[in-house]
Amino acid sequence: MTYTPRTHRLADLTWPEIDELRPHAPVAIVPLGATEQHGLGMAQRTDTTRAEVVADMVARRLSPQVVVTPTIPVGMSEHHMAFPGTLTLSPVTLQQVVVELVTSLHRHGWRRIFVLTGHGGNNSAVDVAVSRLRAELADTHIAWSGITPVVADIVKEQGASQVRGHSCEIETSQALYVDPDLVLPERLVPGSSTLDDLDPAGRLGRSWPGIQFPQGYDALSPTGNLGNPRLATTELGALLVDTVVDRVCGFLTGLIGLPDRSPAPPPARIALETQ
Amino acid sequence: MTYTPRTHRLADLTWPEIDELRPHAPVAIVPLGATEQHGLGMAQRTDTTRAEVVADMVARRLSPQVVVTPTIPVGMSEHHMAFPGTLTLSPVTLQQVVVELVTSLHRHGWRRIFVLTGHGGNNSAVDVAVSRLRAELADTHIAWSGITPVVADIVKEQGASQVRGHSCEIETSQALYVDPDLVLPERLVPGSSTLDDLDPAGRLGRSWPGIQFPQGYDALSPTGNLGNPRLATTELGALLVDTVVDRVCGFLTGLIGLPDRSPAPPPARIALETQ
Amino acid sequence: MTYTPRTHRLADLTWPEIDELRPHAPVAIVPLGATEQHGLGMAQRTDTTRAEVVADMVARRLSPQVVVTPTIPVGMSEHHMAFPGTLTLSPVTLQQVVVELVTSLHRHGWRRIFVLTGHGGNNSAVDVAVSRLRAELADTHIAWSGITPVVADIVKEQGASQVRGHSCEIETSQALYVDPDLVLPERLVPGSSTLDDLDPAGRLGRSWPGIQFPQGYDALSPTGNLGNPRLATTELGALLVDTVVDRVCGFLTGLIGLPDRSPAPPPARIALETQ
Amino acid sequence: MTYTPRTHRLADLTWPEIDELRPHAPVAIVPLGATEQHGLGMAQRTDTTRAEVVADMVARRLSPQVVVTPTIPVGMSEHHMAFPGTLTLSPVTLQQVVVELVTSLHRHGWRRIFVLTGHGGNNSAVDVAVSRLRAELADTHIAWSGITPVVADIVKEQGASQVRGHSCEIETSQALYVDPDLVLPERLVPGSSTLDDLDPAGRLGRSWPGIQFPQGYDALSPTGNLGNPRLATTELGALLVDTVVDRVCGFLTGLIGLPDRSPAPPPARIALETQ
Amino acid sequence: MTYTPRTHRLADLTWPEIDELRPHAPVAIVPLGATEQHGLGMAQRTDTTRAEVVADMVARRLSPQVVVTPTIPVGMSEHHMAFPGTLTLSPVTLQQVVVELVTSLHRHGWRRIFVLTGHGGNNSAVDVAVSRLRAELADTHIAWSGITPVVADIVKEQGASQVRGHSCEIETSQALYVDPDLVLPERLVPGSSTLDDLDPAGRLGRSWPGIQFPQGYDALSPTGNLGNPRLATTELGALLVDTVVDRVCGFLTGLIGLPDRSPAPPPARIALETQ
Amino acid sequence: MTYTPRTHRLADLTWPEIDELRPHAPVAIVPLGATEQHGLGMAQRTDTTRAEVVADMVARRLSPQVVVTPTIPVGMSEHHMAFPGTLTLSPVTLQQVVVELVTSLHRHGWRRIFVLTGHGGNNSAVDVAVSRLRAELADTHIAWSGITPVVADIVKEQGASQVRGHSCEIETSQALYVDPDLVLPERLVPGSSTLDDLDPAGRLGRSWPGIQFPQGYDALSPTGNLGNPRLATTELGALLVDTVVDRVCGFLTGLIGLPDRSPAPPPARIALETQ
């Protein structure tokens, strides 16, 4: 257990180092990001960087038990395509990328795999990919999460704006903490922050909990963001991100402690002798 | 507005009736179900029937403004396949079915479409389908929901079991209300109802909010259900279902009141003259 | 053999009931329908209901040897899309739905499976799906049929119109017998009933047996139907449907009596020692 | 109309010749074959050659009104794979090949296209492809046929064997006529020719008209053929093939005479003003 | 080794002949062609015929060690679609066709397979297909080549034109040798033969070795060809084609001499006991 | 032209910055990498980093005319999967990723796009993607290259080993120059460097120019590399990479100077009036 790898990042290692590290590292994390508009004052790589930093922090905390794949820097961002510069994969392609990365890890022996998406727009595609992988890789434990949803309780207490979400004070605080280069503080402006700031469709979509009425961000906000990123602080970012890291580490420690997953037994056959 | 169609169900009507009804019915609902195990005492069609009945109740309430397609009686139920009788579509196929049904409605002129799934296992595939449809049908308002999540606030107050979900007192109450034939009351038994009832993986998956660690139901519960369906009552079912109907009607009324959705303008071209 | 299940419908049963029924029921039927225009006086669900009723009648007759999955209520109906209300799946998606339903049954142990389509437009997609399934499930007997083609001999004797087919006296008679609610008798009108009623392309397509020249129904008939549904009678419907049931039961009895299907042996390898 | 092209085969021409021929040749034929076992005495290319020769004969008869693409020499032959040498495409791939060839022709201006398959195993995939093409190419007349089904009436009168079909006296007669090199007469042997020659599944599959129970040919016949090819004669082949050519020419003459196909009008929109 | 088959072409043989030949013929060749414009004086089937003839010559030289499948007469020719008559498959479909043909051969026991494309436009799709097949068929040696690239050294010495390639003196010489019917000598004209003959994009694409800037042939050359086919001679064609045959035979002899390919061992599992 | 963006990396910018930069930057580069074994002494991200650095150098040189998307850090590496840690996408998925990224750029107005792959294993998938994109985006100039092939002339002069390629002195020199952290110099060892070092299949594959016989790297080299990376020098790396940058800049300058690409005119229709 005193083994210390040069790094936990699979991309930075040589294959003999990975071969040596492998038996000490039962968990692999696959971080997913996005390249999409984040309002007037935050870089397009914000989700990529948040996922990458959280994965790195978790891996360092649990070292040498966790390896991390490179972060996929594009995701499902169709709803931001009205702003120049956003790149998007279709959900089917994103699913397939996740399936193939996890399958690669499985072929090298990993049986405990965690997909971490920094971008909420990836959630459904990831969930579908994980469903497929659970069926295809019947001996593998596979889990996934976003970042902000892991601290939904804290967000509820901390967020000041009535309408929050994309590039609001919560996300901007995280960005300030994980990589201040992501933020151009002087350009931050409040986005749509109250129901009254939204257009009628956006307002309707936020008025009925449990009903999903997704909108393009061009309809939701002329600046592309919600909430008030000017309220963001590094301290809040630290609270949020450090707690996410604590909790993901807690989960992964539990995951490492589970018995190996066993495939379900093959089905019986309804044959002639049964009549 | 005093026009009354013979029924709101597209499958029960003739085409001239639909042609006549169409200008009065701006909204179409697409209900989705499942054929999957629901524990020892509930029929496999429970999700199909709940979706169908809620859709019918909404359509009657808002008549003649809503039409309803036939309910797709199978969904994404891979996680129940260890129990005999469950049928499952892959998430990619389910997505495609939803995309093609909504596209059919669009070809007949509908521009306000609501997908209602009675089965939570369909959620991600539906969400992905809706994402695709928003991009492909740029002049169409499209929304979706499940049933129980629309009344999450009531569920929180009413549920007795620590661990709830599939075929628990909440779902069984709905079944008793929408179609008592779904339930064999004498066979209802408590499923896994506390964290201690779960196996270690199931317990881990329920211990970290925001982290998704999906499990096959064979691992979660030997009977295939969670919670305690013996606590189910028709009264609770009525409260839950009637409130879902109220809220979906509220949302759809808002949806009807929205201006038509306009496609985003085409992107500019970065050509020689721009240098 | 004296075992009597509560019902043969998988959707209506609980999983323990299916588990108990399974060894007594070597055959599973997968009924397929459609939601498509059926002329001025017949409901869009006509094909769905005909498939469902025939499957139920067969299962009751052979009880407990047959189970029935829920009927898929949409099919390949592109050629009816010019009439408001028709829903259509692409043939590739329909194939995939059939493949996945049959594969689900196979996973639960069924090795004798019958796909019954109430809609002729599904035939090719079903045939392709069955071809794939024969190769993929090498231990499974799989067969399929429509409804009316099983009694082609009787149709030849009974039909009065020169041009028949969709929503003619033959199909309408079946509808009257299986579910009178399908028919609005007072609205039935003759459709294109002679070659002279067809447009030139429709006439050409019916003039050369063995040559397929499919046409949209909007080109074939302004009312969407062929033949003369006013000639339909419940008696003719009973004769047709009861004979279909007799014959499908005869076939399935033969199917139950077959030895289990064995996969073909693996191919030899052309290796070095062969030179 | 006195224009005579060097040949009707697109593959044998140069592009300027095709450009010159094009306005005189409103019809394009796409022949499809197979490479599959044809019993002990007939070559694997039998279906390819029959399709190619019939297409050539039709094109010559109607010259210069018809062009012919190269024959695709493989098809859907999964059911023959137990015999060494058979090649097979999946039905989805074969569909796609047909769709893309027809689409290529459409891009060069053809609006009357005929797919001619020499192999019955291709039928469903072709039918599905034609369905897709009718929807995608809304200005194009598209039809298809096999060879033997076009003369089903003659086959009924002429065939001697109770069980006929693949590589029987009917098909072998055609082969003798279109290309005697296809046949090794001394090796021809009777295949399964009566119901008693079939195994129980094969017998069951031929006992219920209208019910499809496809079997691998290894199960149907140890030699891979049905019927009695020793009864084949060049004279019968000439009768069958010449009649097919007559009838396809009759159909294509009708097709040329049809008005251009017009796309259906776009659907109306159910918008706010309709309430 | 003195065994002599009637022919090496799988399509021309009966299955018992293939069964007898199989142990003597460890190698199968899959030739691929195209139907695409070849300038003013060469037939559209030029690539198909070149592939077919080379495959036949190789098989005869190495008889009985090589069998040949029928040539697929269409390929990836999108870049020629501006000229009337060209047919094209999408690269994904072409890949799939190659994968399925090779897989058919594998099912009959072949473990040494060579794909020979007469059309350079097929290269990438073939390369991708071979990559997939190497992974899927882990016990099979699989290789591929074009024709002209195998004699790149001779081409470099012999070609007279500065810009060469499609339907130039090199390809036309091959055509004259393998099948003089392919060429209409009196119609041959020089195509774009110098960089100055190309449009700016075509010139740019040929100016930076290693950078791929593919162009449609309509942009490259008004006649559809490059170089000067009037310089073609049968003698040069013989030199080129005979050398290709020599070299492919050399390679295949080496391939036959290799030990059987063994699948890689399955990956280890990173399980609990490794911590 | 004196406009200077904060950076050329789309991921590092905000959307208003991209909006402002866009008219000055007609070219977008899409870099592609890989995560795959690079022998005993080089990191798995070597190809990713080389692509990224070259793209950055090109963009800085031509600033502000070029923007760069984030580098995709995984590619087609199936042939390295026998070494622990390699990740691979299927070629179909990689194609799709490229198609969707380029399509995203097109939607934001880019019409001159360059795909730069640092990994040769991606070549075929990229070439196929570019073929599709040329057809789908008919108004867009699209080109692609690798890195080392752009300086094939220098490599020919400089490489010392008979067998070179993956992780040889050429690639390692580039790595030392673009990012010394990629290399652990003390662990570099010669890989298979002569034909005699290869196994028989590897030797065969390198013996016949123009014939492709791809091998897994586990078969080619026990260390996973070819050539002799100990001969690598930063100076050689600088020569190679700087020349690649020069040449890509030369090409892109030409690309910027081209007239806009115009779609081909729509095809004529062969209609009735042509007879």
Summarize the structure.
Six copies of one chain form a homohexamer. Chain A is of the alpha/beta class and 275 residues long.
Molecular structure report:
The structure is a homohexamer of 275-residue chains. Chain A is 38% helix and 8% strand. In chain A, strands 2-1-3-4 form a 4-stranded parallel beta sheet, with helices on both faces. Chain A is of the alpha/beta class and 275 residues long. Chain A has 9 helices and 5 strands; from the N terminus they run αβαβαβαβαααβαα. Chains A and B meet through α3, α4, β4, α7 and β5 of A and α3, α4, β4, α7 and β5 of B.
Helix-strand blueprint:
Six copies of one chain form a homohexamer.
Chain A: H1 15-21, E1 27-32, H2 46-61, E2 66-68, H3 91-107, E3 112-117, H4 123-136, E4 141-145, H5 152-158, H6 169-178, H7 200-205, E5 211-212, H8 217-220, H9 234-257
Helix pairs in contact in A: 2-9, 3-4, 6-9
Q: What kind of assembly state do the chains in view correspond to? A: homohexamer
Tell me the strand order in the biggest sheet of chain A: 2-1-3-4
Label the overall shape of chain A: globular
* Straight-line N-to-C gap of chain A: 58 Å
Uncertain segments of chain A:
none
- The string of secondary-structure elements of chain A, in order, is HEHEHEHEHHHEHH
How much helix is in the residues of chain A?
A: 25-40%
